[in-house]
Structures are given as structure tokens and as C-alpha cells.
Amino acid sequence: MPETTATTAADGGTAAAPGKRSLGTGPGRLLVTLYGIFTVAAASRSLYQLLAQFDRAPLAYSLSAVSAVVYGFITFSLVRGGEGARRAALACCALELLGVLGIGTWTLLDPSAFPDATVWSDYGMGYLFIPVILPVTGLMWLRRSRTERPGA
Questions:
Q1: Which among 102, 118, 104 is positioned nearest to 49, based on CA atoms?
Q2: Cα–Cα distance measured from residue 21 to residue 85, given in angstroms and rounded to the nearest whole number
Q3: Disulfide check for 22: which of 81, 113, 133, 140 has CB 3.0–4.6 Å away?
């Protein structure tokens, strides 16, 4: 059974509460960084677009705002750690993947519905396809990092 060790700030780590697995360490640190960057990017972009250009493409800008909320929740869950946060992040990564695939397909089938791109348009092509790669990677990491259950 994997052990969770608490480290102090003096050790250069983050303190993990007893019974909580830190999801943001090791490979999870890269996920936290990428999700954090995407949270800021999607939130700032959509906020500007919703305030200054809403009439131009309200659906696209609203969907970008939704993606920012999803990214933020996943970032928070990865940093928080623990089994409950892992399950919440797992559900959000699955929702994110469905969103990327659904919106990506919608933008290809009906481009007129999206006069401007969303974060998830064309499966994230405007973001080097990171929006479709990120949830897949997140799902793999979250499944791998699940804690062993007693009697399992």
C-alpha cells in the first residue's frame, strides 16, 4: 500500500493531511501546472470576451467560461488531494473530455454556430490540442493514483 508522508515547507514540499494523498506531486505536478495555466487563460479570455464582445459569439464565450470553471475545479481538486478530491477531479476530467469531444465535433459539423472559437473548438486545435490531451492524461493519473481500499 502506498504511503503518504507529510513534508514541511522547510523540506520543500507541501504538507499532506493524514489520510490524504497529494495528487499534485510527481507527474501530478505537471497536471496542476497545466490546469492552472488553462484556468487563468480560459478565465481571462472568456471574461474579456463576455464583457466586451458578448454579442459577437455568446455561445462560444459562455462555453469558454464553463471550461475555465472546470479547469479551476480540477486544479483545486488536484492540489487538495485525498480520495474525495480525487473522485471529484476524476468526474470533472470525464466531463471535460466529453465537453472537448462534443464541442469539438459540434464546431466541425456546424461552424456557423461558432463565429469565434472556444477553448474546446476543433478539439483544442488553437491550443495545440492540449485541451483533448489534458483530460485523458488527467484520467490516467487519477486512476493510477487511487488509494488502495481495505480488503482490496
A1: 118
A2: 10
A3: 81
Residue 151 has pLDDT above 80, yes or no: no
82: amino acid identity, one letter: G
DSSP 61-100: HHHHHHHHHHHHHHHHHHHH-SHHHHHHHHHHHHHHHHHH
Locate 110 and state its grid cell: 456546424
Give the integer Cα–Cα distance in Å for 73 and 86.
Answer: 11
Closest CA to 42 of 80, 77, 74: 74
Q: What is the SS3 assignment for 47?
A: helix
Among the residues of 1-152, which ranges form H helices? Answer: 27-52, 58-80, 83-109, 130-144
- Using CA atoms, how far residue 83 sits from 23, 44, 57, 74, in Å, is 9, 30, 39, 14
pLDDT in tens, 47-103: 999 999 999 999 999 999 999 999 999 999 999 989 999 999 999 999 999 999 999
